[in-house]
Amino acid sequence: MRVLKMGFCLILLFFFMGEGFTASAAEGPIKKVMTVNQTYKAAFTSDRGNNHWWWSASQLPNPGGVYVITKINGSMKLTGTAYDPEIHLASGDNSQTEYMVHDVLNRELNYTKGEGVGFRYLFLGIRGESYTNYGVEVTINTIEYLSYPMNVDVKLTPEKYVELRITSPGGFYSIPKIKTRVEAISDGNRLLPGSNAGASTYTDTSVNIGRTYKYRVYAGATDDTYRGLSILGDYSILVPSPMDETKEIAEQARDAAREASQNASV
Fold first, then answer.
1. What are the strands of the beta sheet with 134-148, ordered from one edge?
2. Maximum distance among all alpha carbons in the chain?
3. What pLDDT score does 17 carry?
């Protein structure tokens, strides 16, 4: 009987280990679809153009978190005497000289080559004889994208510094053009060294014992150093003094004694 029980337990152990391994191996970017159903119209405010080209920028909906656009599904309509339409994605709205992805409607974007990475604005480009005599409308039905799960772990180092580690189940450095940023918001939004770059670990050495520090962590897939970053969350941690540590040890001993007493009663 004992042998049978042992064999049954081993079967259960291998089953759950197999389940865990499978789930871990499958983790990574998640394909998602965001419903938009919105029409963007070119809003030209002056007759300034370059060889009769005019542009209009609209901000796209933001799925939140760390994401990369893979496809924009929709349609386009021209009015008046417009011709040579172009639809672009751009990282900013103030300059059409920023890096763009051209002709993005209804086609797969190759994010490994930078397409769809970090772009937040839809540019409508059109050509015509007069900006008052034409128009362009783009209706976006859905935006397909990859969402990257992110984890943030906060702990104390042996030197009593604060360490923040940003990870992703699918591999942090496999995220295209990943940028991160950490601010100590308990210290007037003090920026930690390494911010606005691709750092995965931050160490705050400017801390004092006996204080609680609060950090705001940002991350995003972007061409820029800071635009397009999403807030991953706020994280607090106490840098304990010797008195705090003594108190914590005493509380742990008290809790252990209570648990032992309860187990003995049972």
1. 30-41, 134-148, 66-80
2. 91
3. 40
Q: How many CA atoms lie within 13 A of 263 on its CB side?
A: 6
Q: What is the DSSP string of 153-184?
A: EEEE-TTS-EEEEEE-TT-GGGSTTEEEEEEE
One-letter amino acid of 117: V
DSSP assignment of 77-117 equals: EEEET-EEEEEEEES-SS-TTS-EEES-BTS---GGGTTTS
Q: What pTM was estimated for this model as a whole?
A: 0.73
Structure tokens, 39:
């029409």
For residue 236, give the 3-state DSSP assignment. Answer: strand
List the structure tokens of 3.
């042998």
Q: Given the structure tokens 């007493």, which residue do they identify?
A: 261
Tell me how crowded residue 190 is: count the other CB atoms within 10 A of its CB.
14
The residue type found at 56 is: S
Residue 248 neighbours by CB under 8 Å, 6+ apart: 240
Contact yes or no for 126/92 (Cβ under 8 A) = no
Integer CA distances (angstroms), 61 to 37, 193, 264, in order: 11, 31, 58
Q: Cβ atoms within 10 A of the Cβ of 113, count?
A: 10
pLDDT digits (tens, 9 = 90+) for 20-48: 333 334 478 999 999 999 998 876 655 55
Q: Which residue has the tokens 């153009």?
A: 49
Q: Which H helix or E strand runs over 246?
A: helix 242-265
Side-chain half-sphere exposure of 252, counting CA atoms within 13 A: 6
* 122 token code pair: 């839809």
pLDDT digits (tens, 9 = 90+) for 130-140: 656 667 788 99
Q: Interior CA angle at 230 toward 152 and 160, to 5°? A: 30
